[in-house]
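job 3f2a | input accepted
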Amino acid sequence: MTVLTSRQSRLLESWLGPWEAIEDYSWPLQDTLVLHVRGQAGYHIIKASQTSHHITREIEAYQKVLSGIATPIPRLQHADLDAGVLVTSFLPGELVLHSPNEWSPDVYRQAGQILAQIQVPHGMSSRYVDELLSSVGRLLVDASGLIPPIHFEALVNELGQIQSYPIRLHFTHGDYQPRNWLAHDGMLSVIDFGRGAQRS
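job 3f2a | predicted structure (200 res):
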């Protein structure tokens, strides 16, 4: 189970004053602590980790992309990249996943509208394809014992024929689905930008 470090605890105390946890939203298979808390100024969400790169991604997403977008998403209130901890505003609602809202066409209409707002153009990248090819190459090496040699060789050959070229990037959520959507009084909001990144 992920616990707060003494440094993270001190930061949270300086930001929120005395606070108490109301509910633990942490995912069992991740090393990130996610808490709904009450502080001196109201309700918040705390995310903290000692090892997860998702914390870094989320902080950077809020600071570099999402701060100027008027969409129904949490707002970053405090963050420390080095300590691996952030605080956002708390949004009321229930997860759309496994709820009646998962079958509502209006939920998906709203999700599409929000998606159009958060997919901010980033510009052209001359490195993106090379980085993607390198990442796929590493995955192939890891999977080499799982794939018949003839298929493995074919995949490596196909990969080697792809040429790099400049490509336009946009900010993407990275996990845009009902488990990261909240419904409240007929309105949808989007949470969890830990997989947010610039992608094609």
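job 3f2a | Residues 6-97+173-199 form a domain with the Transferase(Phosphotransferase); domain 1 fold (CATH 1.10.510.10).
job 3f2a | closed
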